[in-house]
Backbone:
């Protein structure tokens, strides 16, 4: 996974329409109408922007070679036709988590919580991209996970988040917001970003 | 280790005077006279600044609990009196490194290269702070390691870098620059940053 920066821009524009924003643990986030995701670092200058979260795709932190191969074989791409449901789940873990040694975090993450094993069960139904924010000093969260799935797999998604939230790993979650969205954009070409030609306005 | 952002500002100001800048692997860096280190994100506006590197202190990536305890017991703080020698070694690792799974990287890092075991031998002589840049998309390096030691321990420092450079881990180093410095600042109070009162100028 190469390092790429993403900005999640919450406001009144973008192809993803907000269904709900629930504070699971800790401080809530300001409500928005729509979300836009861009593959660069943006601190929005648009007046209607309520917040921007940043995160980067990065190398694996806990996954072994064997687990990576299982994940790679089953992981679907984002942007599948029909995946009109999405979730953005920003999470901040506690100081206690980050002060653990690598082997202790791995034990909680997989031996105790089966994070990878559980996630594997929901592939390829639930597409997923993890963004890291912990090293981006000043960001309010440590992880931004983006999920995409079809309406037919909604129940499975609810099951997945419910199981993970009961795991020992989640005792180290200090703040979690659960944002649900639906795809709602002009159907000219669902795979192309909408470009506005300023001159033509 | 809490997440703190540092900027390494290369130019003609700062308490650290450059002794040498050597390109060990890959592209060289522009020569500078002095280095200033600040505990925040700065993109310098000073005309004499040649480059700025950014990195954050972060959680441990490979270290086990047992190794952490050994390291904590022997690791000295930065800024010791007499530690007038320093080195800044920015490193970029290859795409192949970052695509490895966690267990594969750990095997190369410690089982094959003994990175922690070797480092431990040079504690408390060589003080050290590691800064991560890999997730700061756009930074030219993945790691910035800052070392401080007394002139009496110079030979040990040469030995340490020489041993690590021969390790299997270093096959994954794509770019490495070795910057050596000496402390050279007004001796009013060596532990206080120099503050200039603009009004008094």
Residues:
């Amino acid at each position: 996974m190469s390092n790429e920066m993403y900005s999640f821009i919450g406001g009144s524009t973008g192809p993803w329409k907000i269904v709900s924003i629930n504070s699971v643990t800790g401080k809530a986030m300001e409500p928005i109408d729509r979300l836009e995701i861009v593959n660069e670092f943006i601190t929005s200058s648009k007046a209607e922007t309520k917040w921007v979260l940043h995160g980067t795709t990065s190398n694996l932190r806990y996954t072994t070679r064997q687990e990576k191969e299982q994940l790679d074989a089953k992981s679907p791409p984002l942007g599948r036709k029909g995946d009109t449901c999405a979730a953005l789940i920003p999470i901040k873990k506690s100081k206690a988590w980050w002060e653990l040694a690598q082997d202790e975090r791995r034990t909680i993450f997989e031996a105790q919580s089966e994070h990878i094993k559980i996630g594997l069960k929901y592939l390829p139904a639930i597409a997923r991209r993890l963004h890291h924010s912990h090293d981006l000093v000043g960001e309010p969260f440590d992880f931004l996970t983006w999920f995409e799935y079809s309406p037919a797999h909604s129940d499975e998604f609810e099951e997945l988040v419910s199981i993970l939230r009961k795991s020992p790993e989640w005792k180290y979650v200090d703040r979690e917001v659960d944002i649900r969205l639906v795809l709602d954009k002009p159907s000219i070409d669902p795979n192309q970003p909408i470009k506005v030609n300023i001159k033509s306005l």
Summary: The radius of gyration of chain B is 17 Å. The mean pLDDT of chain B is 93. The domain at 18-26+57-181 of chain B is CATH 3.30.70.3420 (Alpha-Beta Plaits). DSSP finds five helices and eight strands in chain B.
